[in-house]
Amino acid sequence: MNSPDTTVQQAKREHTRTGMSKDAFQRDLLDNLFYIQGRFREVATPHDLYMAAAYTTRDRLLARWVKSAQTFKATHARTVCYLSAEYLLGPHLASNLVNLGITETARAAAEELGMDMDALIEEEEEPGLGNGGLGRLAACFMESLATCQIPAIGYGIRYEFGIFKQAIEDGWQVEKGDNWLRNGNPWEIPRPKISFAVGFGGHTESYRDERSQVRLRWQPAFEIRGVAYDTPILGYGSQNVNLLRLWKAEASESLDLQAFNTGDYYGAVHAKIEAETLSKVLYPNDEPEAGKELRLKQQYFLVSCSMQDMIRLHLNTVGPLEGFADKFTVQLNDTHPALAVAELMRLLLDRHAMTWEEAWGITHKTFCYTNHTLLPEALETWPVSLFERLLPRHLEIIYEINRRFLDEVRMRFLGDEARVRRMSLIAEGHERRVRMAHLAVVGSHAVNGVAKLHSYLVKAMLFKDFAELWPERFHNVTNGVTPRRFVVVANPRLAKLITETCGQDDWIRDLEQLRALEPHVDDAGLQGRWQEVKRAAKQDLAQWMKQATGIELDPESMFDVQAKRIHEYKRQHLKVLHIVRCYQRIKQGQVQGLVPRTFIFGGKAAPGYFMAKLIIKLINAVAEVVNNDPQVNDWIRVAFMPDFNVKNGQRLYPAAELSEQISLAGKEASGTGNMKFSMNGALTIGTLDGANIEIREAVGPENFFLFGLTAEEVLQRQMTGYRPWEYYQNDPELKSDLDLINSGLFSHGDTQLFRPLTDNLINHDPFMVLADYRAYLECQEQVDRIYRDPERWTRMSILNVARIGYFSSDRAIREYAERIWQVGPQPVLDTEH
Ligand code: 73E
């Protein structure tokens, strides 16, 4: 406990060092500029100023952080550990200012010094430690956990290079390294003393312990160290700060000693470098098999450091490990950290001398698993041979888990050996492989999908056998996104309008309160201001796009946006076919009923995914022709926003009027961009896929543009045989659109360039683009009709926002807390009051 003396000192320190007044912020900004950046105002670069602002903000959140840690320690608070290979955090500064409640203060302080806060915010390079939705979800969840006052630690990897930066050259995607740490990262605090050894390779051996019991242990061939780097995650409207702990790989000290002492200086340096490659780079998804060994190593590295850290924390605070599952609940973000199941078993068995039953009881009570995809290529399996080589002890443990588990299956389903084979943790075949999803399901007491339809399909298809064995284990928690970042930070004008209309800003932490907008939906004053807010965001985006790409957008036209990873199942090429159709209609003078539109795309393709990269080229090829043809220019323009990331997303969501959510039904587990767009007043055109279904129910079917096959119809077609060429032959417009792409018009006469794409559509079309083409076009005509009535459109837009409250990540976190984690809030008190 603090003595009264130290408490007074502490309060004093807070007051003088981190006061929340404008003057205090201003003083510290200059102070940090001088003492941390070693600069004075006149010579400071914009980056110096950003760093000073970041440190000044960080200073103001440290008191809360320390108080949170003290509270959680004193109360033995049950803690959520989120295990994720990815965190797509986005820039910290603006969001931390909002969550500290000092945006206006900081802005005023900077302005008086002649600095433009927005320009400083622009300077920040975001940590792109994720691929897309899965990593961004982890970031939203960390923020909502703090907002909901639930003690949490997010564990991940401190990749030195995050997701590549995307440049567009000659219409093609070009990947550039993301050296995000180059200029320093003011938000993290290194913890060199919190570090763990992680073994690889070697063999296992038996020995007798002090009680003469025969036990097993692993003698790894080499070790790497993981060092903790901590980043505070603030909540909104709460004093709670949670911890994001990312592991950096370093060479182990023992290696240092051995090699340097034997005189092999260069050998030692080489080994050091090799150890550090482990946390060097984030793997893009959809990458081919090759080079995957490093990925398994990364996964084990994450899992081993994190489980060792939890055990250390437990021994330091609570004591004996029997109560581990009462102190911690661990959420596995997909199967990437599923090895944690085997690692916790190993630590409890080999290091803490538990029996199998004791260890399994704890492990099984500790873990929960979220599945994020049904796509077969994303379901992880690892060759047994690789396990034998890298993780021999874990393989033994997995075999033993499997043996006991399959015994249970055999008892329940006598004589059903086919079922046993389907459920085994090991896939037999040409090459035996470990099925990580089965390990995650067997090792967890709760399994969930990320939207209603997805969770249903998880139970009915992917894990059907498991759901028959353990129906009570399966849940749904529909995803959500944080309104702090995606409305308050991204769209301050809209936030202000909402607050003024509702008469309060409680909606920011209780998003259902957006319903207070509904009674005002027909208010002409609100409608006018709503349109002005959208218009201003469109102008902002147009300005940015002009400067970034040279493309001029017309803010008078409808902004129709598809922004997400480029993937065939997301069907960016369906959108392109719509654009080509518009182009042809305009060329033929059929402009009746057409509304001027700007089509905006954003998204990265995995570097090894040829078809996705060709889709990017096609978009840019069509853009080039359309944007340079004065005959169509007044009607349509096409822009590809390079390097779609969190920061650029924050520019897009506020400006979008139409949100494209057009994946083939059954393929998009949830989607979260759909929620971000709708929260910013865009109307959705979408299929009955993922969370679209629930968004449509929430905002009302009359405020949503629906088209396309249902998941069930998709399955039926697949079973009865889908023949895309029949659509090609029977729909003259479709044929003419595909033929135009093949004509060379968009490729300077090259008739072969897009063949792989068009041939695939006509002959295979695995994502049924052609089957949904006609319905999509008809739906787009409906969009045009309604857009021509601005009052009606605005009304629908307001209703989308008013009814989107359910899709706050706060709601998702509360559901996890109640149904999955059995954990409650632990408020951190504001001792300044
Ligand atoms: O539908 C999205 C979902 O909204 C899904 O595709 C995505 O997760 C989002 C959040 O739940 C996702 N990402 C991955 N799998 N599903 C993935 C797979 C391998 C590597 C990286 C990410």
Automatic annotation (TrEMBL):
Residues 1-20 are annotated as: Disordered. PROSITE patterns: PHOSPHORYLASE. One of its GO terms (cellular component) is cytoplasm. SUPFAM superfamilies: UDP-Glycosyltransferase/glycogen phosphorylase. Coiled coil: none annotated. Transmembrane segments: none annotated. GO terms for molecular function: glycogen phosphorylase activity; pyridoxal phosphate binding. It holds the Pfam family Phosphorylase. Keywords: Carbohydrate metabolism, Glycogen metabolism, Glycosyltransferase, Phosphoprotein, Pyridoxal phosphate, Transferase. Belongs to the glycogen phosphorylase family. This is Alpha-1,4 glucan phosphorylase. It comes from Caldichromatium japonicum. The lineage of its organism: Bacteria, Pseudomonadati, Pseudomonadota, Gammaproteobacteria, Chromatiales.
